[in-house]
Amino acid sequence: MKKLYSQMTLAELEQEMKSLREELDRAEFPSQRSVIERKYYTAQAYTLDPSNFPPGVYKVEHVQLPFILSYVNGIMAWGTLGEEPDASFPISMLTRL
After folding, report:
1. CB burial readout 31-59, b (16+ within 10 A) else e
2. Of the residues 38, 54, 77, 87, which has the maximum number of CB atoms within 10 A of its CB?
3. CATH class of the 50-96 domain in this structure
4. Average pLDDT for residues 49-60, to the nearest whole number?
């Protein structure tokens, strides 16, 4: 059975991300791409330091609306996206505005 991303070393996470990128290149359907892409962002989030994501306004990959980050819990950023008060994304999907 595969390890959880939270149990992997940095080298294992990098190998997993490489494997997911290859899988993404072979994906045939948009739904497959979405699932693989989300796995990639989740694995990548474990390579980042959550303390580098203070509250503020961020751009989220593939999302047009600005994301107002309230707090980070583990690898997940929680905040407001447009009218949605409880939105969350892996921190790897965020870029500070």
Report:
1. eeeeebbebbbbbbbbeeeeeebeeeebe
2. 77
3. mainly beta
4. 96
CA distances from 31 to 10, 25, 49, 83 (A): 28, 13, 29, 25
pTM above 0.70, yes or no: yes
Percent of the chain exceeding pLDDT 90 equals 94
Are 43 and 35 a contacting pair, CB within 8 Å?
A: no
pLDDT tens-digit series, residues 60-91: 999 999 999 999 999 999 999 988 889 999 99
